[in-house]
Amino acid sequence: MAQSPHDTISTQVQALLTRPEFQTLLESIPDALVIVDEQGHIVLVNHLIEDLFGYSRQELLGKSPEYLLPERFHTLHQHHRQRYLESPVTQPIGIGLELYGRRKDGGEFPVDISLSPLRTQEGLFIISTIRDISERRRLEQLAQASGVLLQAMLDALPSGVYLVQGKQARLVFANRAACEVWGVDWQVGQPFEDFLQAHQIHVLGSDGHELTRDDLATFRALRTGQPISQYQEVVRRPDGTTVPLLFNAVVLPAHLFQPLQSAESEAKGILVVMHDITSLKDSEQLKDEFIGMAAHELRNPLTALKGFVETLLIQSQLGRGMPLTGWQQETLGEIEIATDRLVELTEALLDVTRIQAGRLILSFASYDLVSLVRKVVQRVQEAAPHHGISLQTELESLVVSLDVFRIEQVLLNLLHNAVKYSPARGSITVTLEADQDQNQVVMQVQDHGIGIPAEQQPLLFQRFARAHNVQGITGAGLGLYLCRELVKRHGGRIWFESVEGQGSTFFVALPIASDEDAAPGDLRMQQPETNASMDPPFSYKRAVRESSMQMKTD
Ligand code: ADP
Predict the structure, then answer these.
(1) pLDDT at 250
(2) Rounded CA separation 134/109 (Å)
(3) pLDDT tens digit string along 366-375?
């Protein structure tokens, strides 16, 4: 008579295995389950085994567990079982073994098998839980493939891209272009600062000075948690070559990327995109050189033209030569105005190119700022009599170390703008206050003119930037750029507050330097460059003429 599978199990074990509670427990387990006795026979399976492998319970009972595996694993599995049974107490039994299962139809699928011993008086049984991991494998392969695809895509980008995480900005990944920017590889997990120091990489601002850690785009974004947009830095590589870069950075929560296995794995990440702007800088430099050259070439004929017009007017006033008719005098006056404006525009363009090329040198000397402001206000008031310009200050005098010609230029620009952008006239107030706590003096120029649209305010200190509400009012958009650079070169700051349709207030803060600060030998006492010393003084006539022209159109 053929032996029933259960004949191999003692009656006591059989009684246990067939008890309804045990069956319920068995069927409630979420994994497929097989129990094998010491002789290597399957003595029990749950219904998930039937679902997974396609065999009926009867087909499996009494068979060896290898029956459920592809043939290539049989020897390995038998050997493993054998070794375990030789010394069941000391041998590890096996948890999370990743193998392949074989279905009744011959199909294979990946499984995770865990084996646990069950000791009874009847001997040792081995419980195997088998889990189908096809989906997990598929997802892993998918993730691996998308990781490879992502890296390939990032490597194909012309811009450098890197992701850092945690306070120390440890690298999570970097693409090929990023490594080319630095000229060396940055190891995953290495803090940004360590990387820079280890390879002697220096990061400079657009003014050529080395940036501190807090000023680097990456750390700024980390510190503030805010995105960074269009931030310029220059990287000096280990071989000494430099590359100008434009940075954009966004903050990512840790769950959006695969975090580093470190104490900071919960910390947010910063995704940085850096764009090599060498060619942009080169063409900008070419453009500046061209503007500089053109402005320089214009200077001589303009000076001659201006000289001839002035000579004609003066000679005629002195009664020398043929007297000029009214229309002739008027025409010459218009030519003089136009020539003045051309001279001023050429000077502004030359200043811009000097600043861009780092050739604008200031000449510092101690000067009474109060008398300077008073003088400029008076001159502009005479030129623009329909605007009520007043100076409010409690200061009698305040001696400051400054380049008087350049600060006069700043003040004239601001006052000129206040007049120009107040076509309906109105009062203009200049305020001068010493802020001893901050060791600075603050000048304010307030008007009640057309104001500046809020969305354009952040752009106005850039070259050639003009707001959209200035139709019909002439200008080149260079004045504020020059003012900012000049004030910056004095160690000061310029800013404004403005409401469109209500008016604007421009602020200039200058440091109050002591006499020792301005002592000879101080860098700020440099002599003016040769061509700068030949510059004609900045003319306030522009303010006069334009405001009077404006008045004509009122
Ligand atoms: P410009 O006046 O020659 O255009 P600026 O650089 O001096 O050049 O000024 C840039 C722009 O800023 C101006 O075109 C104007 O849109 C705005 N602006 C400057 N000052 C004022 C002001 N006081 N009121 C309103 N808008 C101003």
Answers:
(1) 94
(2) 6
(3) 999 999 999 9
